Fold this sequence. Notes:
Blueprint: H1 4-17, E1 27-32, H2 38-46, E2 63-69, H3 75-81, H4 87-92, H5 94-97, E3 110-114, E4 120-121, H6 124-139, E5 150-156, E6 162-166, H7 182-194, E7 199-206, H8 215-223, E8 230-235, H9 247-250, E9 261-263, H10 269-273, H11 278-292, H12 302-342, H13 349-369, H14 383-399, H15 409-420, H16 430-441, H17 445-462, H18 468-476, H19 478-512, H20 519-533, H21 538-550, H22 554-557, H23 562-593, H24 613-628, H25 651-703, H26 706-712, H27 717-741
Helix pairs in contact: 1-27, 12-27, 13-25, 14-17, 15-16, 16-25, 17-19, 17-25, 19-25, 20-25
Pfam family, one: Dynamin_N
GO molecular function, one term: lipid binding
Protein name: dynamin GTPase
Amino acid sequence: MEALIPVINKLQDVFNTVGSDSIQLPQIVVLGSQSSGKSSVIESVVGRSFLPRGTGIVTRRPLILQLIYCPLEDREHRSAENGKPSLANAFKYTFELSLFVVTGTVNAEEWGRFLHTKKCFTDFNDIRREIENETERVAGSNKGICPEPINLKIFSTRVVNLTLVDLPGITKVPVGDQPEDIEAQIKDLVVKYIENPNSIILAVTAANTDMATSEALKLAKDVDPDGRRTLAVVTKLDLMDAGTDAIDILCGRVIPVKLGIIGVMNRSQQDIIDKKDIDEQMKDEAAFLQRKYPTLATRNGTPYLAKTLNRLLMHHIRDCLPDLKTRVNIMSTQFQSLLNSYGEDVSDKSQTLLHIITKFSSAYCTTIEGTARNIETTELCGGARLCYIFHEIFGRTLDSIHPLAGLTKMDILTAIRNATGPRPALFVPEVSFELLVKRQIRRLEEPSLRCVELIHEEMQRIVQHCGNEVQQEMLRFPKLHEKIVDVVTQLLRCRLPATNVMVENIVAIELAYINTKHPDFHKEAALVPSLLKTDTDPYSQSRRANTPRNNMSPQVSSHNSVSQNQQQQSQAQLQTQQQQQNENHEQNHVSENSTGSWLSNILPPAPNRPDSIENSASNTPVHNNMMVSPLKPVNLLPDVPALHNPRRLTDKEQKDCDVIERLIKSYFYIVRKSIQDSVPKAIMHFLVNYVKDNLQSELVTHLYKSEKAETLLNESDHIAVRRKEAADMLKALTRANHIISEIRETHMW
Length: 749
């Protein structure tokens, strides 16, 4: 099982090379409050002093530390890193070690190597300076932090195989040039590493502080409530107050931790200044534990901590390995599909250009016809949107237009009078009906042309939504995409005038000839006479209305003056004369009625306007005043009004208007139904089907030219970068899969 940790180290090298953290590898994450002794614990495990030390915040970038046990007889790492690998090792470790050309490690006991530089460090003071320089290069010289990690490998004959992550210490109050949200930044960085389910949390707490206030244990419990992957380390056992000890803490009586609590003794700041050797510190630690905690000495101390971490990490890797292998296989399949979608490098550009043109034309047509392989299920697209425009938008818009919209009874009456010229209207003239119904039919032209615009816009929109395969090609070759859009736009634009003219002609055809013999309209017109015959004769109504005024009682006039009696007598004489004239006019009217017109058999003769109650009551006194007043000449007439003032219509006028309205409605419904059916057919023939039939020939004519193929098939930088990233990631995953597959079942037990 010792072979598992080097396997994880190799995997970490592979994924660090491509800069990806998509695979969560098992590792040990060290966290704790600032100055709690995290760096001292790591140095004690390594056995060397190589980390930046000091007061305040020192660790300002995550440090991923890989400890690799490398005995002197192990020639695998040493020979490869000496620049003289064997043929077998050269093939096996080319991807991992081709970045480094290192000399002088064959006989070295320990050395370090960073991922960001090819240099090999045998002096650990140089490693410390390199960490400080790299931290300042990225995070700056102030006290700010940076989430970008530093990768360091340490090969030694005295370490156990481990992978540790040293994180910045948790702080509360910003100091120096630190931002105000430094606490939140550090907390987010720590949580990012410890929430990895494949990581082991090493929570470091100083013994001279209260365990109940440990920020490290609190964060660990937040992400690992069961405590299955949390190990606690208590530092500074020698700095506890006199009269106190850590027995209860180390035994787990204060705060229980499932994986255990291990106590260690670190070097003090004065020891660091005096450059006290870590081996000497180990001896002092062992003596302290034997003197202070004799019963717990074998289960505490830095050597026991290193062995415990090695054991926990190996078991944790064993548990995570099946899921890790599955994850690598899934991601390999995903990145292989992604790489295929980006396509391969173009060798024959003319053939590739023709292939893309053919694929686009086919995808465009199948999207319109609804036969595409990948049919959208979340929204309408392609031909379904065209159908929606025809039958929902255009159809409902026409249905919402009322046949008599914008037409008043005075407009109808004016049209009837204008159609008869100087002659009074005896019947409803046919010209007035045609004039009014054409006016209403013209209202259908605007929504019909708007329907053409909507279909044109939708045809243009389909270019951006016709097939995932075509869209990948369009993203890959942006110049070709622009030219294809230009050709389709030009084709649609040149068909737009012809389609508009055809739609306008459809409306003009309906206006050219008003077919009053249309079967549906003829039935409606035949109902009009039956409706008019139900009304009573207006002349009998007029005579009945005038009878009481001709037979007024003489007792009523006995109380009036002599002038009033004379006025009533003259009024009775005038009414008698008017009745005689009306009877003569009625005889003439009946004789004229036999000649007929287009509706002469269904319309009664018009009533005489002076017989109405309103006119007889208002005109008679005015006529008498004009007779008795010598100041106004008799022949003075008022001006002809430009517009009719609102007034009450006579019975004949009301009937004429009702007849015209009934006929306009009937004929308008017929025309609307015809246009509702003809306009979509015209648009499909002149615009949609024409574009479908001629799209590929237009694209070939404008684009398939040898001198243009070179320019059109230039890839965008974005796609080239994405292809390289996908290829590198696929190569790393393939290498990772190969490394995992080398593990035998016997290695895990």
